[in-house]
Amino acid sequence: MRRLLYLMPVLILGVLALFFAKGLTLDPHNIPPELINQPVPELNLPPLPGRGDNSGLATADFKGHVSVVNVYGSWCISCVEEHPTLLEVKKQGGIPVYGIDWRDDPQLGAAWLKKHGDPYDRVGSDPAPGHAAVALGVTGAPETLIVDKNGIIRFKYYAGPITPEVWQDILLPKILELQKQ
Amino acid sequence: MRRLFALLALLLLLAAPAFAVDPGEMLKDPKLEARAEKLGAGLRCMVCQSESIENSSADLARDLRIIVRERITAGDSDEAIVSYLVSRYGDYVLLQPPFKAKTLVLWLGPFGFLVLAIGAAFAFYRRRTKAPVPAAALSPEEQRRLDALLKDSASK
Lengths: 181, 156
What we know:
- By secondary structure, chain A is an alpha/beta fold.
- Chain A is 39% helix and 17% strand.
- Chain A is built from five helices and seven strands, in the order H-E-E-E-H-E-H-E-H-E-E-H.
- In chain A, the strands form two sheets. Chain A has a five-stranded mixed β-sheet. A two-stranded antiparallel ribbon of chain A has the order 1-2.
- Chain A is elongated.
- In chain A, 38% of the residues are buried.
- By secondary structure, chain B is mainly α.
- Chain B has two domains: 2-98, Orthogonal Bundle (Helicase, Ruva Protein, domain 3), CATH 1.10.8.640; 99-130.
- In chain B, 60% of the residues lie in helices and 0% in strands.
- Chain B has six helices and no strands.
- Chain B has helices at 2-14, 30-41, 59-73, 78-89, 104-129, 140-155.
- The termini of chain B are far apart.
- The interface between A and B is medium-sized, with 19 and 18 residues.
């Protein structure tokens, strides 16, 4: 009994060390997204100017096929970085890519697409305060969601801009898997 | 110089706590605005570390302030607004974590430690205040030696 008591400080230290080892390596920004396996919320976003009246984004656009939704904004610096990857995805085809022009003047959002290229099949304008983005649990741009055939959100990539590697290794396998279902 | 300091000190007293809320965002009805501020003070700014949306100047915090106010104006209850945001951003959006199975250790842990500490203190002090064990009686051999010593010193 006595000996056990002397071991207590060591035991307590051990438990604390375990807690800290776990706690200090967690990234507080890396919060698991809440909306996985939930249906896409009610969306009815108007189109960007100059892209045709029927090119906005609504909940119905997610039915019947797997889709990718990319949250961008003309103010978003890393979006420029991931844009070539999205353009390449568009070129290869096979999956509709939707854009949400978040916290942005639709004029600026449209001009940005003219300047950098337009990888989107549809783009919805979601100016501040970003009702659609909040409904989707978006915390920053760029953010990319994968939605299955039934309009259920299955994956969210929010760890930074999509690089060709991220597309090949993380997003594409998920898409192919969902398309098979 | 002294006057200047006095003036500065006075001005400091006047400084209001820094709120990020833009006067333009505020609701006209002070009652509703008070509700919005109270709600917002308990909601975490998701892109900051430990700031509420009322205190943060981040864009997302501003958006959420506006959305909270829109919903209040639309007649939503506080619970409905909070549960909407939790459904979008998870429990992390609450500055005070909810009491549920997953947070049991968090909420009850400190009380557990308190009970442990009280138990340890109790055991420690009880052992210390116990009456000293009465000395064992002398063995016949010891008694003989003692008698011899006493006799020795008495005879001197």
